[in-house]
Sequence to fold (211 residues):
Amino acid sequence: MDQYVAAALAVADAEGLAAVSMRRVAGDLGSGTASLYRYITNRDELVDLMVDAAQGEDPLPESAGDWRADLGAVAHALRATLLRHPWLAGELAGRPALGPNSLRRSEAALRAAVALTPDITLASQALSAVHAYVLGSVAAQQALRRAEQRTGLSEEEWQRSVGPYITEVLAAGEHPMLARRVLEAEELDPDVEFAFGLDCVLDGLAARLGR
Fold:
């Protein structure tokens, strides 16, 4: 069964989750669809197995004995997994994944959150806030990738193409803050931007929960 899940992951990573079908996966492995159905009931089950396989690719972060470090490790690990598998964020944003790897990851994440507050409701809310930040950050980064694929222009090439228009708009003087951002703000690496935003989320949790 593992070979079918691996083949499905390869298709989804390269072409998107919509490209995954029982027929496609079996065909890529040179077998008939009927052989796949002997192991996996339907496409929904296949997707569930894909999600759990992706969640199990990396070892669980080891606890540092500090809630902030541990929640930060949870966030960075989730981001790394989502960036490897662009389709996965949409699956994790809905109902909770219930495969064994997913459950182990959820348990470890909740343990980190409970170190922040023993109130399980507040701990769950804190973890949801961290997850929401990761999902949003990754979605923005993936949107840039899709724009590059759709237009055939890298981010630098796109900036050059719209440069004359932006120069004209800013010269009118109606958007001074945008002008400052374009002319003065440093272009940061996505990893740096993610770390800054995560620190802000963790700072907010610490302030709200008195830690």
